Amino acid sequence: NSESIISFSELNPLKVKGKKNNNAVALIIGVANYKNVSQATYADKDAEYFYDFSENVLGINKNNIKFISNQEADENSIKKALKIWLTGFSKPSQSDIYLFFAGHGFSSSDGKELYLIPFDGDPRLLSETAIPRSYIFDTIKSLQPKSVTVFLDSCYSGETREKEMIIANARPITILEEESEVPENFTVFSAALSTETSSSLPEASHGLFSYFLMKGLEGDADKNKDKKITSKELHSYVRDRVSKQAARLGFIQTPQLKGNIDKVLVEFN
């Protein structure tokens, strides 16, 4: 049985070194263990690894990285990180801001607003306890950064990474958000179309999207071998592998990219 021998190499944030970027700041959030809803398996581990990738590959100074996970990533802390920490650490027209979120998302019942669920969020009180994606984008945009790169390993279908409903008896969600544009100078990578589930890759003990995102950043996504990875290169690498593994696991997951496709994300030394 070939199934049992499928293995994925451990992620290695030290494999390559990216050029230092003293103007970069990163906010990294991972919530696996939720207070009111079922787990987002490995989401905290995805965020921990992304912290190392931010430092070694994206070249972000350790002091410019804020990492919050699980119970520390409650609604209040995430909003404070966005409104207070990020304001203090970013400079208008100079900063390259990175945001990574792994955890649950949810959609409003009319499908018009997508939310990220903090540790203490509850989809049954969505607008009171979750954070709209538009709030996050608007807050970052108001800082007038030079560029913004967002990685979202979450989905809005109301399902966990294991295809169970986040809350029992939730109805399927219609989503109209797909067409929404991202603000200028934003590049947004999402794990899946909003009606799809963002799943885990059990053999690698990571989220499926996060695993290949970081594998790509190790240098695997540098298709033309010019020691640079553009968002387009990273996206096509991630999309091909995620779709293929999702199919093997029995479902459909199509990572999305919006915004500046030619942005150089990494330059290797």
Query: Per the principal axes of the C-alpha atoms, what is the gross shape?
Result: globular
Structural class: alpha/beta
Q: Give the uncertain stretches in residue-range form.
A: none
Give a count of the beta strands, DSSP E runs of length 2 or more. Answer: 13
Roughly how much helix do the residues carry, as a percent range?
Answer: 25-40%
Strand order of the largest sheet: 2-1-3-7-8-12
Main sheet properties: 6 strands, mixed
Count up the helices: 6
Could you tell me how far the N terminus lies from the C terminus, measured between alpha carbons in angstroms? 42 Å
Order of helices and strands: EHEHEEEHEHEEEEHEHEE
C-alpha Rg (nearest Å): 17 Å
Strand content: 15-25%
Can you describe this structure?
- With 269 residues, this protein is an alpha/beta fold.
- Helices cover 28% and strands 20% of the residues.
- It has six helices and 13 strands.
- It has helices spanning 43-56, 75-89, 126-129, 133-141, 208-220, 231-249; strands spanning 24-30, 65-69, 96-102, 105-107, 114-116, 131-132, 147-153, 186-190, 200-201, 206-207, 228-230, 256-259, 264-267.
- The strands form four sheets. Strands 2-1-3-7-8-12 form a six-stranded mixed beta sheet, sandwiched between helices. Strands 4-5-6 form a three-stranded antiparallel beta sheet. Strands 9-10 form a two-stranded antiparallel ribbon.
- Helix 1 (43-56) runs parallel beside helix 5 and helix 5 (208-220) packs across helix 6.
- The longest helix is centred in the last third of the chain and has 19 residues, at 231-249.
- The mean pLDDT is 91.
